Amino acid sequence: MSPLLDSIVQHVRSPKADLEAPFQMLVSMMERDFYLGRILTGRVTSGVIRVGDKVHGLRITDEGVQKIEDGKVVKLMKKKGTSMAVIEAAGAGDIISMAGLSGPAIGHTVANPEVLTALPAVELDPPTISMTFGVNDSPLAGRDGTHVTGAKIGNRLMAEAETNLAINVLPGPLSESYEVQGRGELQLGILIENMRREGFELSVSPPRVMYKTERGERLEPIEEVTVEVDEEHIGFVLETLNNRKGELLDMGPVPGTTGRTRVFMTCPSRGLVGVKGVFNSFTRGTGFMHRAFQAYAKYRGPLGTVRKGVLVSVGRGFITSHALMSLEARGTLFVSPGMETYEGMIVGEHSRDSDLEINPVRTKELTNIRAPGKDENIRLSPPRLMTLEEAIGYVAVDELIEVTPKVIRLRKKYLDANKRKMMKNKIMQ
């Protein structure tokens, strides 16, 4: 690292810090402590701050600069390595954490009382994807997690929204459900994974794109996509993104390489849901894909066929190898013998575009008659076990992801087969 650090010192201009000016700091991080309350972290832009000094919080609104709260610095801390060290004072250029104010948040300014101008905050991209978080109501609910109620899920999401400005939490369409808005399925997937490791059980809807309407025209978020792949994979990339309403902007060889191609495209955010897993699998990890929000543009129409139908269980119990042996020809299985299933759970992908109801808990008939060929060894192909990221990109509109600390399951929104048919007919009408 020494040559890199020496180059930074040599070529990057040193910051201009004014210790004589009044104290100002832009809040860039925020966390909560049970004893100190809200802890604000940021870099001191100007001036000096000491424990006991009076400060206030400011924010920029459409009407101008607005005061949030007056307070006093209770504690000052500074990072030293991986630990926090308590300090008595800090000056311009220092990155510090302070306690004593409960109102200011990320993007707000903390300053001396005589300062009435707020520092400009960094503008964040608007949320483009939303998912509904709710209570896990499957027949296997409550077995793995310790936080299973809607109130605990809501408190955890509100705490996340307080420290993460890129996430918005709103009341959901159903009781004890919450609509979580973010800037991509990866960001929301990280939140779900963190909650899962903390012992939460919940059900999650598939990602939905946040549309806008201006002058009677429907607009959707469009993203810039940059792809670098080997030449042998370029046909797959173009076919996949074109099927998802992508538009090609430019394509050419990567400078300094042999056999590599770079593609620039624009694609709707809804078309990029789940494409990363398919891309990595097909290119065997040799491809590179980068996405960035561009703007809201005119709706590009429905997507092409993204996936096939699913195999839905109609029985409850433990899955048997005897049943799976005859079901392997129907498609790709997501389960293995010994796993527990229930009615409405998705156990595989159908080889056709329609859903198929199957019974994976069927057992061998026990009789006292021995027949040739009845005791042959059953050899099954390894199941396709989905990660959370793959599951988020796979589920359809009428399906949910059941997330527990130990397992991830896919299921239909309505577990009863008759209710699913009734709701499907209702939508078609």
Question: What report would you give on this structure?
Answer:
With 429 residues, this protein is an alpha+beta fold. The protein folds into four domains: 1-111, Beta Barrel (Elongation Factor Tu (Ef-tu), domain 3), CATH 2.40.30.10; 129-209, Alpha-Beta Plaits; 218-298, 2-Layer Sandwich (Alpha-Beta Plaits), CATH 3.30.70; 306-364 and 380-385, bipa protein (OB fold (Dihydrolipoamide Acetyltransferase, E2P)). 19% of the residues lie in helices and 37% in strands. The protein contains eight helices and 28 strands. Strands 11, 12, 13, 14, 15, 21, 23, 25, 26, 27 and 28 form an eleven-stranded mixed sheet that branches. The chain has an eight-stranded antiparallel sheet with strand order 5-4-10-1-2-9-6-7, with no helix packed on it. Strands 16, 17, 18, 19 and 20 form a five-stranded antiparallel sheet that branches. β16 (212-214) and β17 form a beta hairpin. α3 (185-197) packs across α7. The radius of gyration is 27 Å and the shape is globular. The termini are far apart.
Q: What class would the helix/strand composition place it in?
A: alpha+beta
Helix content: 10-25%
State the CATH superfamily name of the largest domain. Translation factors
CATH topology of the largest domain: Elongation Factor Tu (Ef-tu), domain 3
How many strands?
28
Contiguous uncertain segments of 5+ residues:
none
Shape: globular
Number of helices: 8
Rg is 27 Å
% residues in beta strands: 35-45%
What about the largest sheet? 11 strands, mixed
Mean pLDDT: 88
CATH class of the largest domain: Mainly Beta
What is the total number of structural domains?
A: 4
Oligomer: single chain
Terminal Cα span: 65 Å
